Structures are given as structure tokens and as C-alpha cells.
């Protein structure tokens, strides 16, 4: 049975349309301005990029995944022409999108992801080769470092913008999570790209094929690290849910102790939640406030039922 069609918000569609337009323009410029010094070299890079597209690096923030193909885009900026680098990024993004599970293979996200890569790759090569105004007198390492920063910034901004608009969540928090987890990857990729460029000039670009097993080991190490982080996070969420269920059980026992205040607990819980939202408390603070609202009458458990249910006034001793 097919999944129900989920329409994207108008703001999200407008944002995707703007990115797709920019990506199409970048791709068109790369095609019309195509130049290559070694077609076999480009085909070799493209082949390795396609193979790498079958894998993905998960981001613990649940913003999405980072395909290892970005590494070959960085290498392409050093080894290939600008048009070849943009095409390399588009090929990798296309394969990465196509090899997603069938339920995730939707036209809008696929087109957006490809366009975002085309835009980011164009900015990368434009800054590195100084066509976007960066002084040519700057050292190569500095120009490449600035280009990497812009590339990472654009990727994080475009992805976070789409996610925030689609899910109706905070753009800044989404962007912060995305940038925090991707920036180290891009910095590591930049180091690897420079190392490959040095080896390539000494031995030849064919070393890219030989380095495949090393890259695979690095990928497996990162994947194992992220899996452990996700496992720890899942365990913490399970413990938190268990604590909340325990608190809820206590709250039910409190309410059962005093039959005259039926529904009082639920009302206090609603008031506390809405006041917390109006005060713009953080998510952990709101969770703590919710737990406190459930337990605000916990003292009743230590009071005899004869006192709690007494219809008249309490004596001084009972009070």
C-alpha cells in the first residue's frame, strides 16, 4: 500500500524552488563552460564518486546524512576544472538520492539535494579559483580553507532551512546541529584532499583507486562512533521515559488518595505546560516543569485518608 501524500508547506516549497533555480543555473553554467584537461581522469573520479554514493554518514542531530562524496568534490576542486568539480558534485548527489530507500525517493527532496550540491560546489570552486573576487595573491591553503568554510556553511544553511521550514522548528537550532556535526567532517575531508593532491602530483591521480580501502576503513570507524552515540542517546531517552512513567504512576496514586479533586492533576499539568511555553522555557526545563506539576501533591501520600476525606473542618491536631 502506498504511503499517503504529504504536502510540503508553501514556505518550504518556495525555498526549495529558489534553491532548485539557483542549482539549475549553476549546473547550466558548468555545462556551457565545460572544460577538461584529462577526460579519463574525470571519468575515474566520477566512477569512484558513484561507488562512494552507496554509503552515507549519519548525523546524530537527525538533520540528515552526509554522503562521503563531498570528499571527492573537495579533491576535484584541487585536481579538476571548476565545471568538472560541479558535475562531480551533481553526479554524486544524484546517485546518493537515487540509492535512498524507495519510501524516501521523492521528487522534491531529490531535486533540492542535487541543486544544493550544485550551488555549494559552484561557490567552492568560485572562491578557490578566485573567480568570485577572492584575491589571487592569497596562499593556496588559505584560499582552499575559506572555500571549504563557505561550502560547509552553504550546505548546512540550505539543509537546515529546508528542514526547519518543512517541520516548523527553529532554524537556528537546526542549523547549529547540522553545522556542528558537519564542520569537523569537512575539515577532515579538506586535510585528506590536500594529502591526496600532494600524492597525486608525486605518483599520479590513479592513487585515488588504491586509497579506496583506507577511505572505507575511515568510513567504518566514523559509522561505529556515530552508532555508539545513537545507542547512548536511545538508552538515555528510554531511562527518561521510564522515569516519567514512574512519576505518572505516583501521580495516579496521589489522585486516587483524594477523590474530591478528580481532574485537578490534569488541569495543573495543562496550566504548567502552557505557562512554560509562554515563558519560552527550554525543552529540558519544560520537561522538568511537567514532572513537578505531576508531583505537586505528593505530600498527600503521607496523610491519612481520614484527614484528606474529612467533610468538616480539621482539628488543630489534624491540621
Spatial order of the strands in the main sheet?
Answer: 1-2
For the report, how would you describe the main beta sheet? 2 strands, antiparallel
Low-confidence residue ranges: 1-5
Question: What is the count of helical runs?
Answer: 12
Gyration radius, in Å: 28 Å
> What letter string, H or E per element, gives the SSE order?
HHEEHHHHHHHHHH
Average pLDDT metric: 77
The residue fraction in helices comes out at over 70%
Global outline: elongated
Distance between the termini: 64 Å
Explain what the structure shows.
The chain has twelve helices and two strands. With 319 residues, it is an all-alpha fold. A two-stranded antiparallel sheet has the order 1-2. The longest helix is centred in the C-terminal third of the chain and has 46 residues. It is elongated, with a radius of gyration of 28 Å. The protein starts with 9 loop residues before the first helix and ends in an 11-residue tail after the last helix. The N terminus is likely disordered.
